[in-house]
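Table S2 (continued). Query chain:
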Amino acid sequence: QLVESGGGLVQAGGSLRLSCAASGRTFDVSTMGWFRQAPGKERESIAHIYYWGSTYYTDSVKGRFTISRDNAESTLYLQMNSLKPEDTAVYYCNTIPPRAEYWGQGTQVTVSS
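Corresponding output:
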């Protein structure tokens, strides 16, 4: 089970830190990712981190977002800086590749201009 938290309303240029708490014993060996779904759009993958720590970012968030993980706490993080109105979306975490049974409720991020 994955539970996202940390979303909220923030002005453009602001920052938020999202968390994803995982239960179960597979977190520390899984590649984990953050996804987002904006209104009227499909869910997209924006960042992922391998269990050894290497990271990947989609171009739209590169240089602004940082994904990290704490394997001891089975928690995934997404530090989001320099937020833009186009970052407004529901943010989800999941494994890479994503598993249907792991999709949670997500956490809403709203960036005002």
